Amino acid sequence: MLYQRTVAKKVTVTGIGIHSGKKVTCVLHPAEADFGIQFKRIDLGNVDNLRACAEIVGATENNTTLGSGENAVHTVEHLLSVLYGLGINNCFIEINGPEVPIMDGSGASFIFILKETGIATLNTSKKFMVILEPVEVRLDDKWAKIEPAAQLIIDSTIVFPHPIIKTQNLEFEFSCENFINHIGRARTFGLFKDVDMLKRRGLIKGGSLDNAVVLDDYKVINQEGLRFKDEFIRHKILDVIGDISLLGHEIAGKITTYKSGHNLHNMLCRKVLDTPSSFQIVSASSLEKEAVQAFELPRALAPSFH
């Protein structure tokens, strides 16, 4: 049996929002089975919780935002990706500002913090969304689709007119261990020439070489260089996992993206949810072993029973 998971105890994370530039503190609390992932803006007084689901995604420009207007939480994708990557289904997240801290621009800090905090197993089976038929969305020359597969596979392609990035493709077979080793450490990235334009649009006020890979016209300008030679496409897959987690369940299906972004990922999620014939929600106990085995954690992260 593959059981639902939560954090073993309360843990606090503090950092800067990459777009807002504001110092923000998140407190992750254990939650009961079937609670899901929910955010609460504690700086706004008595406002509704924001459940991490595709239907309440608002803005998708350079990040994924839950909610709209004042009661919103921006840049949720990296934290959501790590929670999915570690098989954590249930967590209550209090946040005292508008944006999840960017940390180092990847999921590595969140992985480290959750490793130290611990992961607890709940006495309720995980539920999987099994994809039964293909669903596809397109926007100009960009597209994303999901189709049947025994476990989660992500095949992503990015195309950038830059000599370091060019066209990169990676097919990633999901497992918690693969996520930790090959995806979680990949940082967000951007072009130095776009900095002024993005700041005029109210974005990347907290951006720096400490939380993003930055490229000039020819090279990476971060002194330490890249963590992987194809760090750019690995970060895209990190984003895809975070955005697709908003379907609300572990996924058995293959996702293929071409030049996609947060908007297209959300369009795909919404179309899946609007097409009931395209999926079935099943208990983990009725799944192929590949999908279940993917959520085995490395020994250092093995969850305690809660």
Q: How much of the sequence is in beta strands?
A: 25-35%
Sketch the topology as an H/E string, one letter per element.
EEEEEEEHEHEEEEEEHEHEHEEHEHE
CATH topology of the largest domain: lpxc deacetylase, domain 1
Q: Architecture of the largest domain in CATH?
A: 2-Layer Sandwich
Mean pLDDT: 93
Distance between the termini: 15 Å
Counting structural domains, the number is 2
Beta strands, count: 20
Strand order of the largest sheet: 2-3-8-4-5
Question: What's the CATH first level of the largest domain?
Answer: Alpha Beta
Shape, principal axes of CA atoms: globular
Show unreliable segments: none
State the helical fraction.
10-25%
CATH homologous superfamily title of the largest domain = lpxc deacetylase, domain 2
Report the radius of gyration as a whole number of Å: 18 Å
What is the tally of helical segments? 7
Give me the secondary-structure category: alpha/beta
